[in-house]
């Protein structure tokens, strides 16, 4: 599951919807793809609603209960880049970037990202591009189902599948060594 642009610490953060979403889904791995905590906003005016703490607590609980949580800091939480390749509170902090045009050269099947704030799943020239859209604006997340299908979910009062792609139907090499994907 991939979620980005939560912006905890910003008054318009959709923490209640996110907490409801996180409590309703399970995943082997949770990727937090940047701008989880909005340090920029907090520098201007400190704001921290109790629901923001509850989201962090929920994520930490998931990490403690066998969900691998990988955090890739963005621009609003770039201070956490100082902790790349470390684990804090059970959450792994990583940095990885592969430009879309370099995907084939990097031997990846697809690219998953956030930050652009436009949720989308598309396949272009055999490379799958998935953007989770950013929680703060669209309350969307990407999830991979057991059958390999990646779905773009929208959460507000109800959960809706906006788009999906079956990665098992891509023209992917059948080598015994699996390709990587970039987050």
Supply the key terms:
19% helix, five-stranded mixed β-sheet, four-stranded mixed β-sheet, 31% strand, 183 residues, alpha/beta, Purple Acid Phosphatase, chain A, domain 2
Could you describe the 3D structure shown?
The strands form three sheets. Strands 1-2-3-5-4 form a five-stranded mixed β-sheet, covered by helices on one side. It has four helices and twelve strands; from the N terminus they run βαβααββββββαββββ. α1 packs parallel to α3 (50-64). It is α/β, with parallel strands linked by helices. The protein has helices at 15-24, 39-44, 50-64, 135-138; strands at residues 2-3, 29-33, 68-72, 86-88, 91-93, 108-113, 120-124, 127-131, 140-144, 149-155, 159-166, 180-182. β7 (120-124) and β8 (127-131) form a beta hairpin. The relative contact order is 0.19.
């Amino acid at each position: 599951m991939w979620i980005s642009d939560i912006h905890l610490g910003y008054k318009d953060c959709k923490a209640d919807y996110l907490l409801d979403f996180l409590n309703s889904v399970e995943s082997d791995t949770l990727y937090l793809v940047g701008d989880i905590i909005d340090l920029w906003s907090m520098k201007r005016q400190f704001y921290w609603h109790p629901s923001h703490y509850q989201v962090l607590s929920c994520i930490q609980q998931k990490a403690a209960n066998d969900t691998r949580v990988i955090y890739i800091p963005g621009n609003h939480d770039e201070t956490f880049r100082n902790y790349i390749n470390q684990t804090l509170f059970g959450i792994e902090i990583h940095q990885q970037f592969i430009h879309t045009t370099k995907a084939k050269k990097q031997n990846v099947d697809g690219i998953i990202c956030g930050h652009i704030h436009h949720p989308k799943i598309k396949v272009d020239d055999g490379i799958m591009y998935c953007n989770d859209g950013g929680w703060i604006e669209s309350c969307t997340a990407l999830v991979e189902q057991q059958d390999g299908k990646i779905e773009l979910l929208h959460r507000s009062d109800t959960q809706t599948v906006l788009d999906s792609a079956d990665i098992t139907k891509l023209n992917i090499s059948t080598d015994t060594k699996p390709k990587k994907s970039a987050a």
